[in-house]
Structures are given as structure tokens and as C-alpha cells.
Amino acid sequence: MERLLDTVRTRAASIALILGVFVVWEVACLGFRVSDIILPRPSQVVAVLVDRWPAIAPHASQTLYTTLVGFGWGVLVGVALGVLIGSSRLAFQTAYPLLVGISSIPKVAVVPIFVLWCGAGTVPAVLTAMIICIFPIVVNVATGIATVEPELEDVMRTLRASKLDILWNVGLPRAMPYFFASLKVAITLAFVGSVVAETVASNRGVGNMMMIASSSFNVPLVFAGLFLLAAMGVSLYVIFSLIERRVTGWAHRKTDLAVAT
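Below the sequence we write its predicted C-alpha cells.
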């Protein structure tokens, strides 16, 4: 019961903080008579979302689609590379510097290359979302596998387990908390990649909508796009958090005990 009350209090405080930020924003814009071109009020942004939702919805669905597809491919590639790098010291020493170098390249710089290869449209956005979320997944999965306690590996070897058995029964479960932590980071980065590509090489999506709105000085519509991206990002973050608690609840037992006491 006490744990439930603590959870309710935490969520209520979070909601109150968010609402408080919007109230202060609204009051400040009214009190200082801030122009809509400079900073629209939250009520104006919500009104734009409601009034123009039929026109905004296709852009939102396009961005969500490209983000999820790119994120899915990024997860597949990231997990494969993470398992390889975390399981082999040679692979770690040879491939990790290359991954760091690739991740250091600004992703907006590779969008024109994707356009040359694949043409403008959905594919460059998917590829940009994919490459931007691979690195955190690789790092976390490799770290989880590489930091398996030697004692567990010794026990498995005494049971005549092969390297594949150790990886499957010890390494991968040990890496699950790291993996889900990387998913929550990667999904937000995937939105960044999609929107960046849409502003450069697409005629659909929230990024393209925001570029057109900014060119016509429709600032409330620009902020409506920001609100929409934030809502989608938070929703997916919450979904992965719930899945994480379901799959890796054993990793949070210390937190649960701390709350219970």
C-alpha cells in the first residue's frame, strides 16, 4: 500500500510540474504581451492542433512510421553488433573505434548522401533514424555482455557449457537492463533522425510541416509540431519503460526494497 501511495505521489508531482510549466508559460505570454510570432501561448498551440488536426495527422503518422521502422532496423543491427563486440575482445578492439567515429558524424551531413542513393522521401528518413539509434544500443548491449561476473562463467564452464550456452543463458539476460535502457534513449534519438531527414529531403512528415510553417511565419503551427513530437516520444518512452519493468523486474528489486522500507 505504501509503495502504491509513493508511486501515486510521484506521478502526481510530475503531472503538477508539467502543468505548472504550461501555466507559467501562458501567464507570462499574457502578462508581457508576447507576440505570437515570438512565442505562442500553449492554449494557442493546442487550438492549432485541434483545428488543423485533419491536415496534421498525415504528417504525424508519416513521422511515426519512419521513426518506428528506422528504430526497428536500428535495434536489430545494434543488438547484433553489441553481441559480437561484447563477446569478443578482438571485435571490441577493432570495431568499437569505427563505431565511435561513425557516431561522431553529424547525421544531417549524411542525409544528402542517402538522398543521392535512394532519392527523396521515406527511405532517407528511415536510414537516418536507424543509424542515429544504433550506437547507444551497441554500447549498452556490449557493456552488459562484457561485464558478466566471472564467477557465473566459471560455474557454467564447470557444467560443461559452451560459449554459446554461456551467452544465451547468462550474457543476454545480464544485458537486458542495459538493453532496455538503451531503447529508451534510442527511440528519442530516432525521432531526431526522422525529423532532420524530413526537413531536408521529404515532402511529408512533422519536420517538413514545421519547415513550411516557419517559412510562412506560422509559429503556433511550428510549436504544434514540437508538442506532437514530444507527445509521441514520451508515449513510446513510457511503453518501453512498462515493458522493461515487466521483463527485467528482477533488476529493480533493490529499488523495490528501498521503497518498501
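The two ends are 12 Å apart (CA to CA).
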